[in-house]
Amino acid sequence: MENPGKEILEEWRKNPKYWKWKMFYYNKEDNRLLVDKPNPNYGTTLNFAHRKSYFFLIGLFFFFGLVVFTFLLNK
Predict the structure, then answer these.
(1) CA torsion angle 19 20 21 22 (round to 10)
(2) Quick one: which H or E segment has residue 65?
(3) Which member of 25, 46, 51, 55 has the greatest number of CB atoms within 10 A?
(4) What angle do CA 21, 29, 55 make, to 5 degrees?
(5) DSSP 3-57
(6) What is the pTM (predicted TM-score) of this model?
(7) Are the CB atoms for 36 and 55 separated by under 8 Å?
C-alpha cells in the first residue's frame, strides 16, 4: 500500500492484532519504519515487519556498545 489514508493509519495503530505482547508493532502492510504507539503521548516504536528495523536495532546496540567500551577504556 503506497499512501494509506489517515483512517487506515489510525486503524493500524489501534488494532491489537498488529501489536505483539502489546509492545511490538508488526504490520507487513505498513511501509513506515517508525510508527506511533497506541497512545501517541508515549512516543514511537519500530515496525518489526520492516527489514530496516533490525539494521536500526543492530546499529543502535553497536553505537551504545562502542560508547560503553570507549568509556571503560578511558577509566
Answers:
(1) -10
(2) helix 51-73
(3) 25
(4) 70
(5) S--HHHHHHHHH-GGGEETTTEE--TT---SEEE-SSGGG-EEEBTTSHHHHHHH
(6) 0.78
(7) no
